[in-house]
Amino acid sequence: MSPSETVLETTGVVVRFGGNTAVDDVGIDIRAAGVTGLIGPNGAGKTTLYNCITGMQRPDAGRVVFDGQDVTGLAPGARARRGMARTFQRLELFLSLSVRDNLRVAGDIVRANTRRKLDVEAETDRVLELTGLTDVAHLDVSDIPTGRARVVEVARALMTRPRLLLLDEPASGQTEQETEKFAAMLRALADDGLAICLVEHDLPLVMGLCSRIHVLDHGVLIASGTPAEVQASPAVIEAYIGAEVVA
Amino acid sequence: MTLFLTFTVLGLVLGAVYAIAASGLVLTYNTSGIFNFAHGAQAMIGAFLYYQLQVVWGVPALLSVLVLLLVVGPLMGFLLHRFIMGGLRDTADVTKIVVTVAILLGFVSLSHWAWDPQEARMTKMFFGVDSYVTVGGVVVRYHEIICLLAAAAIAIGLRLLFTRSRVGVLMRATVDDPDLLRLNGHDPERIAATAWALGSTLAVLAGILITPVAGGALEANALTLLVIDAFAAALFGRLRSIPRTFVGAIVLGLASTYLVAYAPSEWSWVTNLRDALPMIILFIVLLVLPQDRLRGAAVRTRERYEVPTVRRAAVWAGVMVLATVAFRQLIDDSSVGTLVLGLSFAIMALSLTLLTGYAGELNLAPVSFGAIATIVAFHSGIEGEGLDARMNVVGLALGVLAAALTGALVALPALRLRGLYLALATLAFGGLVSSMVLRETQERSWFGQDLALFPNGNLIVSPLAVGPLDLGDQTTFLYTASAVFAVLGVGVVALRNSGYGRRLAAMKDSPAAAAMLGQRLPLLKLSVFMISTGMAGLGGVFMSMALSSVTADHFVYTLSLSLVMLTVVGGIGYVSGALVGGLLAGGGFALIVGSFNELSIEHPVHAETFGVLSHLFLVLTALIGIGVGDNPSGNMHAIFRGQRVLARAPEVRYAALALTTVLYALAYTEVIGTWTFSLLVLVLWLALPAIGTALRAEKILPPEAVAARRATPLELVGIDTPYPPLLAEHLDRELGLPARHRATVPAPPVADATARTTTGPVAGEEAQHVPV
């Protein structure tokens, strides 16, 4: 696959909650083999847009195209089976299972719901190794710190061998060291061809990691481009002024 | 035309009462997040209290109504919230549902106690049947006008409450985010208490109004099921919108009266259908409800279940079968039947461990699925005549299959929705079985075949015979039931340890995350529900074979509810919890209530006392169920945790095992009775962690706990051991008191010190410390 191949594209997506327009005519694209950033102040509509992309929220207008196919009407599960995976801002781990079983069950789900062959045990070991979770694999998932728990969510998503990985504030709750390791891992995954989209408030992380960035404010897309372009955009500076310093 | 108008008025009135009941349900659900299954039971209590006041004690109708609506209703709601519902935060939906189910059962047993169900009781319409006006040839009674006016007033009142009043807005906020509400300086508990008081009052009002409208005598079970009618109406508003709930209630009321008015008279099953109508409408509404949005909901609840390995389960299964064989030697033949019944219920309870414990879904009518399996097995599998008649294995298999397929039909409409809807669908199914299927006592043509589903209201279910295995022999039956439970138990544990079981756990913990990994949730839910109802069917056929002759009363919904409740009490996440719950539901109660009856026959002087005791016992069961709120993981969980400390001191277990063997030998040689043996063994093993800790403290407890035990308790320092000045300083530091210059104060004589601690100087010392 060529590095610039578009894996996901939204066009004209609108979501209204009563009289409040949470996402207003937003069109973004996410490309393979790279990390795309999606940033904006609190309440900008980032998570709502994620919900539209993954099918957890039906948009009032607009289309979501994944791998060249219109998936706007598909259920979350159907999109996942086509290669979409996400993590959650508020952790959604399987609390009655161990770390290892949280990963294993993702493999079980793939085996039971798709035609793909998968050696669940081997794949679990591989992903645990890849994400550096081997040392906590046997623990109850509710007994590990939030920073590591976020990595478990990513690892669980990776078990499905996705084409597109949507991360919702994966670095919050992580220590600085954890974030560094995490960034390196994402870079390696992107180099292998995975399309990654990152919603994150840690702007140094976003600027250092992403090749392209979309900026939302009050539900409107106010800028798209490389980190340098976005940082130079007057609209972005205005949206962030006083709130955060663009690194 | 007059007929149409008459039935329209009747339908509207019935709808009005449904609306009153339903709005109370919606109110409490939306302010506390608890779906109150006891809502109908509260209405029932209201109706009976009204009867007691007005008919028995002759209190004027208006005064009776005022007492009930202004005192009893609000008080009932307030007490429920204060002592029960308020403690249910952070528990799983299952726990919340089971607690309200326990309240339902408690109210039903209370009413059976206070008002003998054999006696017919009638309440009259307000102002009597003869006070009416005639509008266009239609007779409208004052009572009916009151119903309509009350419903209209409540509709307007609730609308104003929720949109205009501060309390109403706060009520809505309570559900969305109680913590935020607390931060804003409000007390969500007080608001929830208000809502419960209001909701209970509406239930009581509905109970008072409905009996004369629906006709017939006061009947506790029927009134309790008013919750289904109310729920069917509330579903029109998705359990949220009060106006749509009113529309739903009116539709329900009209449909029910028109059905009676216009159905051809040769349809003899129409009266049954009328009873079942709310349940049928409920299924239809479930079908057309839009799908729930998936939202993240992985919250840490207080329930905790640990999963044993298959090996461990297999060992325990072996122990269980051996224990059954050993115990059989101690009991006489008549008790074997009770034990078999208990094990049959345990098999049904095991279906709940899989469904609820592992997958987080709920089935409130396991016994009704048992009824379906029994009917199918009866019609397809009985061979031979009279006492030689036996059921063949094909009949048993078909029965199980029928239960599984019926399970699929029941679950299908609710699969896309939240667990609560599935629970309600099963409860409605239970009602449907009781009011339609089990009343099919006459022959009727089914697809060209003349057949009575439930001939003469009494099925003779012969025992199973497969090759040399003949369950006609009670002992063989007992061992078989025990073995079947053991095998299924291991099977259920194996299932939980497989990829399938992990997927169930994932669905239970976070449906959103499971779906986002590609899981087809409806399919998974359907499959586990079918396995579970099939298992319930198997248990049901075993139950029927154990009873050998079953009537509709053996499949009544309260039995299902007790079973669910007792299984949760035992620990619904565990196979052993299912065993305990099943034995209690099937064997224990029959035995205990039965023996109270026997006792009262033996000792007629004390008959009344024994009667009270057996009633008290039933009410207490409900209290145990309510206690689940405090211990949501169930009792087996607590027992396992207790036993685990003994792993460090295995000799305690060996000693207990030896003691058990000795007791068994004593019982076998009839030195001690079976009851004594059972009780002693039970107490021994339950108390073993405490006994072990007392005897082997240094091995079992962590070192610091042992040290703490050795040290003198703080309050005895100075009495048992000397009181060093260092300790005083340490205490001052811990309490945050300023350091006193003890060293400069000479130690007072002992007698003086006693005086100091009891009199004057104490106040002075206090004054010295207050400014800190």
UniProtKB/TrEMBL annotation, chain A:
Gene3D superfamilies documented for this protein: P-loop containing nucleotide triphosphate hydrolases (3.40.50.300)
Bilayer-spanning residue ranges: none
InterPro entries: AAA+_ATPase (IPR003593), ABC_AA/LPS_Transport (IPR051120), ABC_transporter-like_ATP-bd (IPR003439), BCA_ABC_TP_C (IPR032823), P-loop_NTPase (IPR027417)
Pfam assignment, any one: BCA_ABC_TP_C
Keyword Lyase applies: no
Residue ranges occupied by any ABC transporter domain in the UniProt entry: 8-243
UniProt GO molecular function: ATP binding
Coiled-coil annotated spans: none
Keyword Nuclease set for record: no
Keywords: ATP-binding, Nucleotide-binding, Transport
PANTHER family referenced in this protein's UniProt entry, alphabetically: ABC TRANSPORTER ATP-BINDING PROTEIN, CONSERVED COMPONENT OF ABC TRANSPORTER FOR NATURAL AMINO ACIDS-RELATED
Protein name, per record: ABC transporter ATP-binding protein
Organism: Nocardioides oceani
Automatic annotation (TrEMBL), chain B:
Chief location category: membrane
Family the entry assigns: Belongs to the binding-protein-dependent transport system permease family. LivHM subfamily.
Pfam family, one: BPD_transp_2
Name of this protein: ABC transporter permease
Region (Disordered), start-end ranges: 751-772
Keyword Cytoplasm applies: no
Membrane topology label: Multi-pass membrane protein
Location(s) in or outside the cell: Cell membrane
Keywords: Amino-acid transport, Cell membrane, Membrane, Transmembrane, Transmembrane helix, Transport
InterPro entries: ABC_transp_permease (IPR001851), BCAA_transport_permease (IPR052157), LivM-like (IPR043428)
TM region positions: 61-85, 97-115, 142-162, 191-214, 220-239, 246-264, 276-292, 313-331, 337-355, 362-382, 394-412, 419-438, 477-495, 526-548, 579-597, 609-631, 675-695
